Amino acid sequence: MLYLGCHLSSSKGFLQMGKTALSIGANTFQFFTRNPRGSRAKQMDPADTLALRELMRDNGFSAIVAHAPYTLNACSSTPETREFAEQTMADDLRRLEELPGTLYNFHPGSHTGQGMEEGIRLIADQLNRILTPEQHTTVLLETMAGKGTEVGGRFEQLRAILDRVELRDHLGVCLDTCHVHDAGYDIVNDLDGVLREFDRVIGLSRLRAVHLNDSKNPLGSHKDRHEKIGEGFLGLDTFAQIVRHPQLQGLPFCLETPNELPGYAAEIALLRGLE
Ligand code: FE
Ligand code: FE
Ligand code: ZN
Fold it and tell me: Ligand 2 centre from 257 Cα, in Å?
């Protein structure tokens, strides 16, 4: 089964996101848990989340992906910034219990000069304080482009975080195609090799979601600028290989390309045609 979707606005609630997904040929989607700058979260309405769960069940959706605000930084050198990230993530995870089985994706963070090792330690320590044995959400570390002091541009860094977290059964990884490419992993010419490396370092069983984005920049540029599918340095053939790859079957694929809904609908149709 090919699960395809895109990033959707959550402003009209959960059922509406499910309906919007159906209207563009999607059978999964991603949404921000709160406005991307991170502040206020809307109360979740149990009737609304129940209606979405029914829609997802009736239409064969995969798990959906909640994305943490990208401004959170669990490994900032500023204690208040770390504290804000911790409170926000803990609150998001509490609220997501209304949608059991959801994936919660976050950017590991930027160490802001403290060094990679210290960044990794701060992120893992924070996860150790937040994760609970009872939770029904799997928290995903996103692969990053390695821009500035970002943690997560190398698979080894994600592995180091996983190794330090006690409840790592509640952790997984989300592979972003633009990010890994910008980080220097050549998925255009050697997708198999990159997946082998992912498996060797992290383990493919940890891979729980994929972000499908083309890139405006060449391999190893460490930039993180998303492009429409087929219009960047990855190219359509790379996406054909990805959606057909036997080791990626059954994962939710979410587009985060620069598009409005009609553009997303067209990309979803294009990708379904490649399968
Ligand atoms: Fe992201
Ligand atoms: Fe992403
Ligand atoms: Zn990105």
Answer: 9
